[in-house]
Amino acid sequence: MEKAEVTMLDIANDESSIHGGGLFTFAERIDYLKNFGKHSMAFSALQPFMQYFDLEDVGYIAYRKQWGTVVCLGDPICAPQDREQLISAFLQKYKNPVFIQVTEPVAQLLHELTGFYATQFGKETLIDLQRWTTSGKKKQVIRTAVNHAQKENIVVKESYGDTGYRKLSENWLQTRKCKGREIIFLIRPMEMDYKEGTRRFFAYQNDEMIGFVFFDPIYENGNIVGYVPNISRASEKFPQGIFYTLMAHAFEVFKEEGVPYVYLGLSPLAMDYPVKNHESSPLRWMQEMTLKYANFLYNFKGIDFTKSRFRGEEEPTYAVHKRAIPAKEFVCMFKICNVI
Question: What is the rounded radius of gyration, in angstroms, for the C-alpha atoms of the chain?
């Protein structure tokens, strides 16, 4: 193993690891996360089986390997002014990595440093909680869901002791297009050893759990500045809308606490126009055709529609890749994600 990389399992099993040669201890990695993890995937990058490229006194890049391909997850965890130094050091070790779900500033920097394509991969939605309200014609679907839940005597609670969510999750997975398989990497696993800062909201009807949303923290300068809903499940017994009810309740809780933002996470293949000069036209076309004709493989349109109801600020997110058609790289990513 190289000195600058280590799996999360190795870190967790060796709390006494000495910080040297670019190898962070678990506590040190969490410090970097809490200072520079202002990205919806920052907490998810602590999931099992991840590897890390660490640069002492700077930060780290989270990635996984599959069939010789290095797939990086999200923005580098470091100060914005240190991104070029960290990325340059990483590229000296790995010549042809692919970066998935990075923000526009990071995508632009990678393009300038490498000449790689930076192609839109989807979009993320940001909710300013201090301006959040359910009023307005375009949020009628959220109000309808909340009102229906009240009429059905549905109660939302924040809790950490109820383990009934596991059975609900198993049943929910059987209804998905990737039946019975939990998607990972781009979505962190439901169960993680490290849970500090996470929040769990459950919906009950007559004491029966019918849905839940797990939120992960987003950090800046040692403070929680937002949350992202990474795990959500709903019972087939309850009509559509429980997600809106859970989210609306959580928004009000976070708003009262003074939390600035909720990041709704990735809407894959939902892309802005026109196409930018640094994007791969063939890959854009392939993604557009996937969205148009292959929604049966994954609910791309449904995810985008649901998140659009919150009327937040939409920001593009990117994949950065060397080849115009990164076929192998994307197959490797799908394998890492447990899609194939």
Answer: 20
